[in-house]
Amino acid sequence: MRVRLALDWAPNANHSGIYAAVKHGWYNEAGVDLDIQHHDFTESPATKLELGKADVALCSLDCLLNYRSRAEPLPVKAIAAVLQDDLASIAVLESSGIERPAQLDGKTHASYRACNKDATIECLVRNDGGKGDLNFAYPDQVTIWNTLVKNKADSIWIFMNWQGVQAELAGVALRHFKMADYGIPFGYSPIMIANEDLNTDQSAALKAFLAATAKGYAWAAAHPVEMTDILLEWVSEDDKNKPFLQAAQAATSPHYISTMTGSWGHMESEKVNAYLKWRVELGLDSEPFAVDKLVTNDLLR
After folding, report:
1. Domains and their CATH numbers in the chain
2. What's the Cα-to-Cα distance from 36 to each of 39, 46, 66, 125, rounded to whole Å?
3. pLDDT tens digits, residue range 12-34?
């Protein structure tokens, strides 16, 4: 059974369970011929799914909602959550004097045009008592180094388990504003999405794929040190730094497994519903989507 998996970014600790399952041969044991398609910036993972170039794609719940909201909706569903917790933050330099989101009014935020991220940041600022009046810049690359460090921007959206760790090891002191601290619900990210209309063979292939993947993430959660050596084989040359990967993996491993089920991949309908209602309040949707139309845990074992 061939499964083509389109990743959302360059190899990183969010993907560790996949690489662990490859290393241990668990996909082969499950009869899955896995084709990993790394992110190439020419087509989004969801676009690859839409064009029939992938069977499973990684994206955010926001991106899934954008595809389901089109005039001709893409018939896809979330089939698993990669992470159980929100590891993103809005980061500023500690030396900037910005101590709370409300102080971002009138400041420059370097954005990478991801699904509804700008609206989320404006909401975060308003929820702290500000106006949500930011200046958005869209550089070709959004990194800590070419934005905050070079004083080209005052804030950026980062993932604390990756860019945050990089900054800490480089001695760049950051202050983090986390979404949950300012009333913004967690929209599962990344998630795995697939076509909702599956025949029997396709369902069997995805169930086998997810079972092997869950085994990989369970192993990565329990063995963060050993996982670093596997991740080292996959990451880009720029990221082949073992102390960094050890720290990044240690920061990520605790967030793979659901406390509700004790297993990987599960999505809680209450959390999804809270996020959907928040999107309506923000004006992104006219009415909340039905949770069961967007996510399913049925393919998880």
Report:
1. 2-85+187-294 (3.40.190.10), 88-182 (3.40.190.10)
2. 10, 14, 24, 38
3. 999 999 999 999 999 999 999 99
